[in-house]
Amino acid sequence: MLFIIGLGLGDERDITVRGLEAVKKCDKIYIEAYTSLLSFGLSTDGLSTLEKLYGRPITLADREMVEEKADQILSEARESDVAFLVVGDPFGATTHTDLVVRAKKLNIQVKVIFNASVMNAIGICGLQLYRYGETVSVPFFTETWRPDSFYGKIKKNRSLGLHTLCLLDIRVKEPTLESLCRGRKQYEPPRYMKINTAIEQLLEVEELRGESVYNEDTHCVGFARLGSEDQMILAGTMRQLLTVDFGAPLHCLVIVGETHPVEEEMLDFYKLTDGVPRQNDSETA
Ligand SMILES: C[S@@+](CC[C@H](N)C(=O)[O-])C[C@H]1O[C@@H](n2cnc3c(N)ncnc32)[C@H](O)[C@@H]1O
C-alpha cells in the first residue's frame, strides 16, 4: 500500500493523528523535498526532527528520485507499506497525481491522508477562498528567460474581480550550468523567491506588456512562513510591500481583487499604517 501523507505547514507536530499512525506502521518512508521547504528540517546531527518523532529513518525524495525512480517507490509499495510524505497537503498546489495514477495502473492500493495547505491557509487574511481566480506561479527570471504567463492569468482574474494567489519559485537541487556541460552533476545552492523579488518581476512585466493589469498602487497581501510560530501576514500596496523584509522563506503573495465589506474588515488588521502593521499575527499561529 502506498500512503501519501500531508504534513501540514508548520513543523513536525502538524501531522494528523491518522497520518502519524500510518507512518509508524510503514516499512519505508520517503519525503518529497523539492516543492516545499523542510522547516521540519534535517538537523545537524543528521537526524531530522521527523525521524526523531517517528523513530524511523526517512529517505529524502528529491525531484530526480520522484521523476526518475518512482518505479522503485512503487515496487516497494507493491510488497509492503510505503509512506510518501508531502509538506502541506498532497494535492494542494503541487499535485502528486502522477504517482497516484502510476500506482493505480499497477493495481497498487493508495491511501491519501490530507492536511492543511498554503491554498487554504491564506484564508487567514480574510479574503474569501471562493473569491479567488486561477493560482499563478512566479518563476525566477534569468538573463535570458523571463516567462510571463502569469500576467494573462492575473489579467483574467482581475477582470472578473477575483483575487490571485501567486506561488513563488523554489529552486532546489538545480544542476549548475557548468556541471551540465561537463556531464557530472553539481548543484546550485537552494533558492526560495521572496515577496520583494516577486513584486519586482510582476512590475517589470506590467511595464513591458503595458495592459494596466496592476500597478504599484495595487493592493496585495504578503504571507511568510504560514503555520509557523513566526508567520507574517501584511497587507499593503505593491509599493509598500516591495521594501518590507518578510524574513525567512517560504513566501507567497495575493493580489487583491474586488473586496466585500466583510473581507475588508478582516484585512484591515493586516494593513500597514505608516509602515507599521496594526496587528502582528504570530500569536494566531
Ligand atoms: C508548490 S507549493 C507547495 C504546496 C504544498 N504542497 C501545500 O499544500 O501547501 C509551494 C509554494 O507555496 C507557497 N508556500 C508553501 N508553504 C508556504 C508557507 N508555509 N507560507 C507561505 N507560503 C508558502 C510558496 O510560494 C511555495 O513556493
Provide a descriptive summary of the structure in words:
- It comes from Melia azedarach.
- This protein is an alpha/beta fold.
- The protein has 11 helices and 14 strands.
- 31% of the residues lie in helices and 19% in strands.
- It has a 5-stranded parallel β-sheet, sandwiched between helices. Strands 6-7-12-10-11 form a 5-stranded mixed β-sheet.
- The longest helix is centred in the last third of the chain and has 15 residues.
- The mean pLDDT is 89.
- S-adenosylmethionine (SAM) binds next to strand 7, strand 10 and strand 12.
> What is the count of DSSP helices, taking H or I runs of 4+ residues?
11
**Which percent range fits the helix content?**
25-40%
Gyration radius (Cα, Å) is 20 Å
Question: Main sheet, how many strands, which sense, barrel?
Answer: 5 strands, parallel
Overall 3D shape? globular
Mean pLDDT, to the nearest integer, reads 89
Q: In terms of per-residue confidence, which ranges show pLDDT below 50 for 5 or more consecutive residues?
A: none
CA-CA gap between termini: 34 Å
Strand elements, count: 14
Strand order of the largest sheet: 3-2-4-1-5
Order of helices and strands: EHEHEHHEHEHEHEEHEHEEHEHEE
Q: What small molecules accompany the polymer chains?
A: S-adenosylmethionine
Strand content: 15-25%
Strand pairing plus helix content: what structural class? alpha/beta
Keywords:
single chain, five-stranded mixed sheet, alpha/beta, 285 residues, globular, 19% strand, five-stranded parallel sheet
